[in-house]
Amino acid sequence: MLLWAVHVTPTLCHRTVDAEALRLWKTPIAEYRTVKPPWMRPILDYQTEIQEWDEERGKICTDVTNEINNQIATDSIGRMFAVVQICGKQFKITEYDIIIIEGFWPPNIGDQLKLEKVLLVGSKDFTLIGRPILNRELVSVDATVIEKTLSHTKTRFRFRPRKQYRRINFYRIQHTMLRINSININGNINEKKEVEGLDRVYY
């Protein structure tokens, strides 16, 4: 019976393993591209001061403001529109529109209201956008409550299969109909109005 002995030098094994490890270690790895597309803006240096307002832009702003004030003074604005918020919902309105407010609302029929949460007012040539709302002294939206009624009958049907469970309910929601009387801009738009107090309560 012959026995064959194979002797492997341990240093040779270590050398081959180290060589494989080094070869894998030096494999190039995918990296982020350093070349930027031409449409990307360059990264700004935040240590340098950037001039955001120049004389040319200020002149354009002054000219636009004067033109809007001139239109307001000569009453050549035309029919205006506005976006107001009432009871958590926003409505785009113009003069003599009728809007329906769902749910309970305290005002009664015939009450004269001034809507103070005005988000936007516009005309054919310009638009004033609030951040988030316009000053209540600059814009006034007058409205009248013309009717309080109930909605059409709505049906709520609940059904669970194989449980002999059927329920049907009929209900109606309170509706308040509001007519928009007028939308006006009071004075020049560049005048500093009185700062709004925190004691005002908005509906």
Radius of gyration, taken over Cα atoms and rounded to an integer in Å? 36 Å
Residue windows where pLDDT falls under 50 for at least 5 positions = none
SSE class: alpha+beta
Give the overall average pLDDT.
83
What sequence of helices (H) and strands (E) makes up the elements?
A: HHEEEEEEEEEE
SSE blueprint:
Elements: H1 10-25, H2 55-74, E1 81-86, E2 89-94, E3 98-102, E4 112-115, E5 118-122, E6 127-129, E7 139-150, E8 154-160, E9 165-171, E10 174-185
Antiparallel strand pairs: 1-2, 1-5, 3-10, 4-7, 5-6, 7-10, 8-9
Overview of the molecule:
Helices cover 18% and strands 33% of the residues. It contains two helices and ten strands; from the N terminus they run ααββββββββββ. It has a four-stranded antiparallel beta sheet, with no helix packed on it. A four-stranded antiparallel beta sheet has the order 3-10-7-4, with no helix packed on it. It has a two-stranded antiparallel ribbon with strand order 8-9. The longest helix has 20 residues.
In short:
The chain contains 2 helices and 10 strands, in the order ααββββββββββ.
Attribute tags:
single chain; 4-stranded antiparallel sheet; 10 strands; alpha+beta; 203 residues
